[in-house]
Amino acid sequence: MLSKLIRHQALFSRMAMRRMMSSEAGHAGHEPNPEFWKKVFLYVSVPAIILSGLNTYFLEMEHLAHYHKPEFIPYEHLRIRTRRFPWGDGNKSLFHNPKTNPLPEGWEDDAGH
């Protein structure tokens, strides 16, 4: 009878220890569900990224439709070239855009005036 009581007590303490360990690990009866997060990514995140990209694209196209070049004023403190750039003709920066970046002499094409 005493040995039976000791076996039940040992079994009970092992079950209690398992419950305690699972609740300490943060699971507490909840199993991880990777399928849920996969669906959240596919059906929420991806459409949100696509919609924000389209919104940005259309806003930028609207901005470019109304863009006009400002009048070129040759300020002394702007577009200073102390030495030539090591690429191209040496006067244009690496990311030069002729529509938005004037050279020290003025705009490359005067069609925007």
UniProtKB/TrEMBL annotation:
Entry's Gene Ontology BP terms: mitochondrial electron transport, cytochrome c to oxygen
Membrane-topology annotation of the record: Single-pass membrane protein
Signal peptide segment: none
Source taxon at top rank: Eukaryota
Pathway: Energy metabolism; oxidative phosphorylation
Keywords: Membrane, Mitochondrion, Mitochondrion inner membrane, Transit peptide, Transmembrane, Transmembrane helix
Pfam families: COX6A (PF02046)
Region listing for Disordered, in residue ranges: 88-113
Keyword Mitochondrion: yes
GO cellular component, one term: mitochondrial inner membrane
One of the record's GO molecular function terms: enzyme regulator activity
Cellular location(s): Mitochondrion inner membrane
Sequence similarity: Belongs to the cytochrome c oxidase subunit 6A family.
Protein's name in the database: Cytochrome c oxidase subunit
Higher taxonomy: Eukaryota, Metazoa, Ecdysozoa, Arthropoda, Chelicerata
